[in-house]
């Protein structure tokens, strides 16, 4: 049971990854990402998730250097963007990300989206980075089972993580089962449903525990064994999102939350995107 912000899941290669992290998508205002990362780390967060396409890796890197927490205690994720697929292009993109972050190594490097006809070759580049020791773990993002099948068919290294849109309205049950059977850790982006937290069931369950709907959803993630990375630059909200380790949802409430699944996406469909 996940009982504190310090708890980590063990990936299939033995690397430990925090169950709770900070997502920094769309934090592009001046100093916004630096302040958010600094505040998160001071609150106890140790995992920060960025991407080349977020255009804020430099700010994340500055905050990491100035935070006062040893680098080895932090878990930093970034991702290769769609225009940088292909073996050589992905290797070049990684070096650019590493330079922007100012880090000797990246903890987790992901393929951001499964660009048709290219992600298998890109995976080979990530395997090289992993074998070279430039990254501690590699994985994918927004991959469906058939995308993962393509990777597994040629992989020397099984992906450690699959980061996808995941929340009570998009339970991804088949994908969860697939990932678990292959020891691929599922990770939730947009866990708080773009702020759509006024669902009656969420309000009712939250009230019964003396928690907020957001805290209930994040706790649901953890009890479903899904790593979660809610985004916020508000210090009070960062603390609220981290205050999820002092209660446990009952089996009945977990079932009610699971039953909210209606396959509703707020983001793009991995099988139908054009960017």
From TrEMBL:
Keywords: NADP, Oxidoreductase. It comes from the Bacteria. InterPro entries: AKR (IPR020471), AKR5G (IPR044500), Aldo/ket_reductase_CS (IPR018170), NAD(P)_OxRdtase_dom_sf (IPR036812), NADP_OxRdtase_dom (IPR023210). Residues 27-260 form the NADP-dependent oxidoreductase domain. Belongs to the aldo/keto reductase family. This is Aldo/keto reductase. It comes from Paenibacillus spongiae.
């Amino acid at each position: 049971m996940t009982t504190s912000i310090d708890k980590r899941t063990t990936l299939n290669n033995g690397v430990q990854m925090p169950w709770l992290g900070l997502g920094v998508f769309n934090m592009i205002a001046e100093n916004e990402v630096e302040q958010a990362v600094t505040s998160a780390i001071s609150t106890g967060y140790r995992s920060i998730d960025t991407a080349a396409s977020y255009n804020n890796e430099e700010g994340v890197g500055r905050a990491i250097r100035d935070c006062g927490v040893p680098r080895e205690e932090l878990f930093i994720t970034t991702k290769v963007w769609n225009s940088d697929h292909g073996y050589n292009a992905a290797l070049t993109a990684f070096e650019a990300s590493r330079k922007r972050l100012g880090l000797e190594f990246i903890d987790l490097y992901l393929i951001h989206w499964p660009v048709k006809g290219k992600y298998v070759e890109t995976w080979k580049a990530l395997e090289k980075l992993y074998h070279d020791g430039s990254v501690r773990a590699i994985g994918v993002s927004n991959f469906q089972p058939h995308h993962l099948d393509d990777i597994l068919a040629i992989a020397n290294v099984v992906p450690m993580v699959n980061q996808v849109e995941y929340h009570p309205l998009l339970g991804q049950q088949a994908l969860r089962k697939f990932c678990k059977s292959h020891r691929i850790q599922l990770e939730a982006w947009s866990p708080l449903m773009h702020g759509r937290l006024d669902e009656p069931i969420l309000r009712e369950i939250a009230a019964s525990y003396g928690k907020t709907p957001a805290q209930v959803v994040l706790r649901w993630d953890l009890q479903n064994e899904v790593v979660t990375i809610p985004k916020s630059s508000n210090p009070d909200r960062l603390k609220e999102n981290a205050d999820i380790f002092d209660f446990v949802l009952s089996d009945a409430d977990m079932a009610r939350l699971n039953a909210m699944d209606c396959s509703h996406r707020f983001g793009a469909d991995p099988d139908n995107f054009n960017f």
